[in-house]
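Figure 2 data, in text form.
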Amino acid sequence: MSSKRLFLVTAACVSVSACSTVYSHIGDEDSGLGEAVAYDKAVQTINPAPVYAANATQPGSNGEVGSKAVQRYRTDKVKAVEQMQTTTGSSSSGSGSGPR
């Protein structure tokens, strides 16, 4: 009977020791934890003062569009600014007569 108890005690000790983790103290988590989120934020953040080489194409530049704009500017035929309205005076009452 004592060998049975010894076996049970040994099995219990092995089972409890298996619950031990690598990081025994709170705050000793993996140092890379959360780096994916930090990287994603950094990639999606726009640089407010980017530096470009002098001979490099600037963002948004298009030779054909730019040359036409310069030609209009030099001949004093600049396009007039369009006035746009974002709201209208009409509204719907939602009478429910639409498709069902």
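Caption note: The mean pLDDT is 76.
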